[in-house]
Predict the structure.
Amino acid sequence: MNNKMLLKTKPILLVCAVVFGIDGIATAADKEEKKITFDDHIKPIFREHCTTCHSESDKESDLALDSYSATLSGGSSGEVIKTGDPDGSRLYSLVTHAEGPFMPPDEDPMSKAKLDLIKVWIEQGMPENSGSKIRRVSSAATAMLTTASAGRPDGPPPMPETLLTQPVLEPNRSAAISALAASPWAPLIAVGGQEQVVLYHAENRGLLGIIPFPEGEPQSITFTRDGKQILIGGGRHSHSGCAVLVDVATGDRIAKVGD
């Protein structure tokens, strides 16, 4: 693989990791960590405390916890588990009695050992069985995933307000566009160049702002679904790569993954 391909591949992989919220790179610590699985650890807990009311044969609130697929599908109010985020998972909040209705009903909370198993299982990406891999979500990826999951924003679509308007770097000659993206709601175009992303008005082509990217050349630009943030992936040839989430209105950096 040549140097140019390495530059393009690394940031794209980082962006994919952020968008899907998964850190799929195995580390030595991951290999040594005890894996908590649904089949071996969580299903017995649910069978003891939950499936009297939440099984395929008796789905109270349309929630069944006696199979892996049913557990991940959630109930009438939607998903009850958020990958890698126990505190943001409704099921975990209910069984720890952090919020009501407390589960199991009319009982004390489960033992700390059982609650810890459920917590670690969620943090590990909810492995199903011994053949499943641990898929932890980094804190930066969690922040990116949370902001990226929203839909159309309330009120006017987000536009640049306090961004720089002077180029970070003025090349001696014209350079090819390295990345290009359009806002899903606003008349806004993002164009990648050397160490910066330039924002233009899609209708009158006027300059609206510049987002510095000192890490190198942007190779991937993606607006979040609500159009409030831009995810920029890029780096330097055969040296480094990263993905950065930036606020469209202010240019503030929200999170960064990579070198």
